[in-house]
Structure formats: C-alpha cells, structure tokens
Amino acid sequence: MLRFKFLASVVPLLAAAVFARAEVGSVSHPCIAVGDTSVELTSRFWTAGVHVAFTDDPTRATVRVQITDNADAADFTVVDDGPGSEAESCQANPSTRLVSIAAQPVDGGEVIYLSSEGPADYRIHVRSKTFSPREAAALIVGARGGHGSFKAASL
Question: Would you say the pTM of this structure is higher than 0.85?
C-alpha cells in the first residue's frame, strides 16, 4: 500500500516536470551565427557557458555597448521585421555557445553598460520584433566570449 501511495504522488510530479521541460524547450531564443558557431540566449543559467550582466554604473562595466539609430555606424545590426526574417542559420549544434543574462555579475563574466551615448566597445543598431537592444548586446558580448573581438555575425 505504501508503494502505491508513493507512486501515486510521484507520477503527477513527473508528468508536470516533463510538461514544463517541453514548454521551456519549445521557446525560441534570440540567436546569431558567428562563422560556424551559433550564439544563443538561454534562460537556463546552468547550461550557459557565458554569463553576462548589466549595470547602470559605467565604472563597473567591463564592456560598453552603445545603441545607435544609424545602422551604418553600428558594429552589429539586427533588423528582422521583414518577410522571411526567421533566424534559419541558428540551428542547435555542438558548437552552439549559450549565453545567459544574470541578475548580478558572475565571477569571470562580462558586465555590460548599455547606453545611447559615450565611448563604446561596440555599437549596435536594433530594429526588431524579436530582439531587444539588451538581448542584442548580450549576444554580441557573448559572441566575443571575453576573448577578443568577433569576426562577423549575421542572422
């Protein structure tokens, strides 16, 4: 009888866990392709190899990212509001780099100061229905991975 009670209490929990995992896994996350590597934002902190955080204090930042209205002045541009704008180049593969946005700086992780003025390590232009400027900044810094600059990124 005790085994039946245990089984009766565990089965609903397992079903809920499987359902929750299916929901989390089916959510599309912003992603860019950098050479042969995909860089994707993830909400699963523990799976990410790169963690970034944001700050409002430029003195605490390790990377400064400027939002610009001029696409020609940007180092990285995201424009995906036209037909056929799905990111087809970002299929999950073994070389996919997962990036998470942490609430607080993580040891060894980049701290991003995002603004529309001042000196910047990167300049981004974002006109998108799926990417926020914050997500674009996290992706571009995650693509860099804290180990030098990136070559070319595309959607």
Answer: no
Query: The tokens of 84 are what?
Result: 């056929």
Helix ranges, 27-150 (H): 133-144
Task: Classify residue 21: in a domain, yes or no.
Answer: no
Q: Is residue 13 part of a domain?
A: no
Domain presence at residue 113 = yes
pLDDT digits (tens, 9 = 90+) for 115-145: 999 899 999 999 988 889 999 999 999 887 6
Q: In this structure, what are the phi and psi dihedrals at residue 4, rounded to the nearest 5 degrees? A: -65, -40
Domain membership of residue 7 (yes or no) is no
- Please tell me the total count of domains within the chain: 1
Q: Helix (H, G, I), strand (E, B), or coil: what is residue 38?
A: strand
Collapsing DSSP states into helix, strand and coil, what is residue 68?
coil
19, 141 in Cβ contact below 8 A?
no
Percent of residues, the chain, with pLDDT higher than 70: 67
1-28 exposure pattern, b = at least 16 Cβ within 10 A, e = fewer: eeeeeeeeeeeeeeeeeeeeeeeeeeee
Domain that holds residue 84: 29-154
